[in-house]
Amino acid sequence: MLKGKTALVTGSTSGIGLGIAKALAAQGANVMLNGFGEVEAAKAEVAALCVAVGYHGADMSQPGEIAEMISACQSQFGALDILVNNAGIQYVAPVDEFPVERWDAIIAINLSSAFHTTRLALPGMKARGWGRIINVASVHGLVASANKSAYVAAKHGIIGLTKTTALETATTGVTANAICPGWVLTPLVQKQVDARAAAEGVSNEEAKRRLLAEKEPSLQFTTPEELGAMAVFMCSPAADNLRGAAINMDGGWVAQ
């Protein structure tokens, strides 16, 4: 379905981003990866799907590096058709104890980076009459949790950016939508599970159950593969008039 298209997925060397990159590649899209971690392993997983793969190590807190990444993607593949803003970091502390530098970093990477990629990708998409902007927000773009002020603020902001972009492109072939996952068993979340198991003296499986039971009625993690399938749907003709949506894939979290 996406043969001949090019997707840039930020924060895509593992977890959700890699899952989305692989799902788009499985539909024929060439992919530009970005992020830290096991770059060669991630490239190999995507390349195994018989598409062209690129990589750019832009620091998503740096607007200049983001601009270089967008330019590199367009130079290597000729166009940028699908933009997936997934890069993100987390820090947990009460508001009155939250380190200023941590706040600034989370806003820069989780929110401002999506503005910079979007503003640079839009002109080409509009000129070609087709484009997809998919922002990986979070259930925390819809509801809050204590001690996550910067993350929640950034993810609420991402949904606002998504809606505004959708309105500004409403009469074009470009769409903008957000996916709002609940708990996903990424390497970052696995570390939280491990820490909880150690702190509470329980098994890893029991730590997972307790984590899910606090928020997610389904008692199961959303998977990168499920999120990838949603991204593919958002790129399909069936989603041509899906504009400004924030779709929660959260096991019932916000239904409570």
UniProtKB/TrEMBL annotation:
One of its GO terms (molecular function) is 3-hydroxybutyrate dehydrogenase activity. Keywords: Oxidoreductase. Signal peptide: none annotated. It is an enzyme of class 1 (oxidoreductase). InterPro entries: 3-OHbutyrate_DH, NAD(P)-bd_dom_sf, Sc_DH/Rdtase_CS, SDR, SDR_fam. The keyword Oxidoreductase applies. Pfam families: adh_short (PF00106). The keyword Oxidoreductase applies. Its EC number is 1.1.1.30. GO terms for biological process: monocarboxylic acid metabolic process. PANTHER family: 3-OXOACYL-(ACYL-CARRIER-PROTEIN) REDUCTASE, 3-OXOACYL-[ACYL-CARRIER-PROTEIN] REDUCTASE FABG. Belongs to the short-chain dehydrogenases/reductases (SDR) family. This is 3-hydroxybutyrate dehydrogenase. The lineage of its organism: Bacteria, Pseudomonadati, Pseudomonadota, Betaproteobacteria, Burkholderiales.
